[in-house]
Amino acid sequence: HSIRPFTNRSGPVLVSGGGPQRGMTLVESLIAMAVLAMVIAITAPLLQMTFATTTRTETLYRLAEEDRTAVGALRRALSRAIVPAGTRGDVVFIGRRGGLRFFAYDDRGAVQELSLSTANDAQGTFLYLTVKSNEAREMEERIILLTGLSDFSLSYYGAPARDAPLTWRRQWSGAQLPMLVRLTMVRNIRG
After folding, report:
1. Are the C-beta atoms of 189 and 57 separated by less than 8 Å?
2. 157 exposed, middle or buried (CB, 10 Å; 0-12, 13-18, 19+)?
3. CA–CA separation, 51 vs 151, rounded Å?
4. Reduced to 3 states, what is the DSSP secondary structure of residue 55?
5. Is there a contact between 130 and 77 (Cβ–Cβ < 8 Å)?
């Protein structure tokens, strides 16, 4: 390619290769940057909302898994609830709104005493299960089932005495086991 002079009325102009010059002017560059800035301004909040939604969904999934695990542990413990031999007429199951106490078999078939209770800390209420072996009452194991509860309650279905009607009750105390135990809880969600 050679550079040849081109003359117009105002004087000679140098043209490279005989074609028009290529490139962006300053105005075109500014317009492109303004369009890019608008696209970023529109998409940034959408990306932020997407990340926040993903984080919240992951937190809810984790909490749901914790809830399923805790309810499964309670279901297993309550399914093993028994009226121990030699306790005729004794109270073997005590239930109240905020906890319960009962006897159940462990994995080896030994009788143990279980109690479900709540306690408070800086992050809210937590639910724990205390297991006392019947062989050595000094041996006590405390298992934290759930943390971050803002509300927790239990209710019991059945008839605590033979002549009582079947109904839901806030408290249970008797020699009979309830037919059903309902757990109601509200979790504090953070994250």
Report:
1. no
2. middle
3. 29
4. helix
5. no
> How far apart are alpha carbons 90 and 103 in whole angstroms?
12
17-26 pLDDT, tens digit each: 555 666 778 8
Assign 14 a pLDDT band (cuts: 50, 70, 90): low
Amino acid present at 42: I
* Lowest mean pLDDT segment, chosen from 3-12, 164-173, 179-188: 3-12
Alpha carbons 35 and 41: distance in angstroms, whole number = 10
- For 113, residues 6+ apart whose C-beta sits below 8 A from its C-beta are 101, 102, 103, 131, 132, 134, 137
User: Averaged over 123-139, what is the pLDDT?
Assistant: 79
Split at pLDDT 50, 70, 90, the class of 13 is: low
Global pTM?
0.66
CB neighbour list of residue 146: distance below 8 Å, 6 or more residues apart: 66, 67, 70, 126, 127, 185, 187
CA 45/CA 85 separation, integer angstroms: 66
Three-class DSSP category at 66: helix
Rounded Cα–Cα distance for residues 66 and 130 (Å): 18
Q: Which tens digits make up the pLDDT trace of 30-69?
A: 999 999 999 999 999 999 999 999 999 998 999 899 999 9
> Do 89 and 162 touch, CB atoms closer than 8 A?
no
